[in-house]
């Protein structure tokens, strides 16, 4: 009927708030339903719906700029464009909170109309924890339209995954919380965005709406599915009120006072912090080292623990846990993350169904046991001297991260952890010995040992047939690596940079045909094995400051996938003629090679070379073929 009535007419059709494909099918199925020059405008919160309908011109509404947002807010809050002086600071606080969200600006501005500055301040404090019902009611429209699993992902994100890296979130959702469809539906519904840094970004109001949904599950925090507020967790753990309903818990240290400055370049005085004697935590953004030193001097009389990760400091609250069996009542708990809390957590009293455990700065010296179902263990900067004694069976454990655990001396027996895929012992600077069982982990994909470890030797046998990345950067005492590494057919990345005593690569290194990155900067190797010519998939070769290397294999040109070759600081005098066959080479570093005299005449064949660094060489004249390098910058 619509086609018959309108196909010869030029019209403007606006379809607002479309949430069902059937609506489009019935009202605007095809372009030929309408006359030439017609314009069809569709608004929706579901981007996928437009893509399914093959709409090729889409516009995503941007947040209002500060000036426009202020005008809109003032038109509702003051009925004009001017802000009274006594409301200026508070108005900026509200504007920062809603981040240019037009709907929020309208609702909040209307609510604050004709209220006093004191009332504004009170409402702002309340709003930071829970927005007004009118805002939630409108924002909840998108949430109510989600499938059940998407609603669960939305609540997970709102309660403890917002601002985390996308890869981390996807892994948590899939491996530990049983969510398989990912984040795309939330993005399509405009409830979530992925930032340029690949971090999840959920608007504060949307985040608080999701958290409010969880709060409404029960007046008793221990009856809710997710716990993230310190006061709620404190209540549950001290009073032992946890139940089977609790599925995720994110414990972070409480903060009495927070400090921030609105202008990035603002000049603030650390001395001004002295009167705040009750301050328990603070965040310092873009603080100079001089400012940090002054702050430490100023507050030297206060006992504080500094965490250099993001210049964050917090006084860690004591207590929380009275009954060690408290967690056992929460037998459906899958996710437990603990930050900046002094919690004497006995891992043997955790429910067996727990899949993810993260407890940074873990205070105990060893683990007595772990939940049978644990899939990932993260104990960054822990005080552990060893993980466990003897062989323990953890068949579900796939990832262990002990980064920065300075007191760890030896690695445990891994024979009972056959499905381990990631083992991160980076920056465990006192780690002296690896248990031989590490070499037998058939499913291990990542072994990260970087960071000035005390290791002097590696496993005698590398039988890790799934290993993709081996990182030994700055293992200063490691001299060699077993020849058996050459049997690892899945190895993509081998990092040995900074291993200052490492002096020889295995002769059969070329057997690792899967190798893509080989970083050897700062080692004492004298030459590359001739078999390196077989690494046809190698894309990156770093030899910076390998001062004993004075020549390269003559058939290096067979490494046809090479894109990056860093020879700076070496003793080489020339490049092999075969280098002309490295047609994909994009960067060539020869800076700091004082004995290097001549570039090969055929260097101009490297059509994709866009970076050539020759500073500090003995080259007097450039080869004429360099004119053929159109990509050179």
From TrEMBL:
- InterPro entries per the UniProt record, alphabetical: Apaf_helical, Disease_R_plants, LRR_dom_sf, LRR_R13L4/SHOC2-like, NB-ARC, P-loop_NTPase, WHD_ROQ1-like
Query: Which residues does the UniProt record annotate as the domain NB-ARC?
Result: 1-82
Chain ranges of the Disease resistance protein Roq1-like winged-helix domain: 148-218
One GO MF term: ADP binding
Q: Which residues form the Disease resistance R13L4/SHOC-2-like LRR domain?
A: 536-615
Q: Could you name the domain of life of the organism this protein comes from?
A: Eukaryota
Name the UniProt record assigns to this protein: Uncharacterized protein
Record organism: Quercus lobata
